[in-house]
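Ticket closed. Logging final result for Amine oxidase domain-containing protein.
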Amino acid sequence: MNPIATKVAVIGAGISGAVCASSLAKNGISVTIFESARGPGGRMSRRRETSEDERELYFDHGAPYFTSTNNDVEEMIRGWEARGLVAEWKQNFGSFDFNTKKFVNFEKEGLSKKYVGIPGMNSICRALCQEPGIESKFGVMVGRLEWLENEDSWSLTDVNGQDLGMFNGVVASDKSTFSQRFTQVTGKPPPLGISITNNFYLYLFLFIYFDWFLQSLSQKL
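Final structure:
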C-alpha cells in the first residue's frame, strides 16, 4: 500500500465519520463518504414530523447534546462555534422517569459545558460533509470491500453489486460494516469479515411534544 493515501472512502456519515472526512480533506486527501441513510447525522440525527394541526416538529432523537473534556476536541468545538454550527446550552435538560412518571433534572451528570447543534444536532455532520474535498453519497450501502493487490487499492461495491470505485484507504465508522446487523438487514455477510463482541443495546424512542409549551414559546417570540 502507498505510504500516503490520496483517495479515501469513509463509510458512515455520523459524527465520527464526518469529523474524520473533514480532517482528511483539510490535509489534501480526496474523500468520498458513503452513507446508507438519506442524510448525515448517525447518532446525531434529527427527525421531522408534522402535527395534526400541520405544524412542523423537529426531534433530535439521538444525542440531545454533547460534552468534551479533551483539549483537541474543545479547540474543534470553538471552530464550530465560530461557524455558527454549535452553541452552549445554558438551560436545563430533563429525563422522564418511567417508574415515578415524573421528569427529573439531568444536571447531576456534571458541570461540563453542554453543546447543541444549530439549528439541530445533525447540522454539524451536514456542514462537515459539505466541506471542500469531500463528496457525500447518501442512500448508498457498501456491500463489499476487496483489497486488490495489483492495484494497491480497495475496491468497493454496494449491496446490489454496483461498483463504487477504488480507494487507497477505507475508514469504516459505521459498525454495521462488520456486525451481524448488516446480515439481518441485507441477508448478506458484512463487508468486513472480522469478529467483534456482540455487545450492542437496543434503545426505544418516544417522540412527544407539549402543545402548551409551543403556545407559550410562540407568545414569547
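The chain has a mean pLDDT of 80. No further action required.
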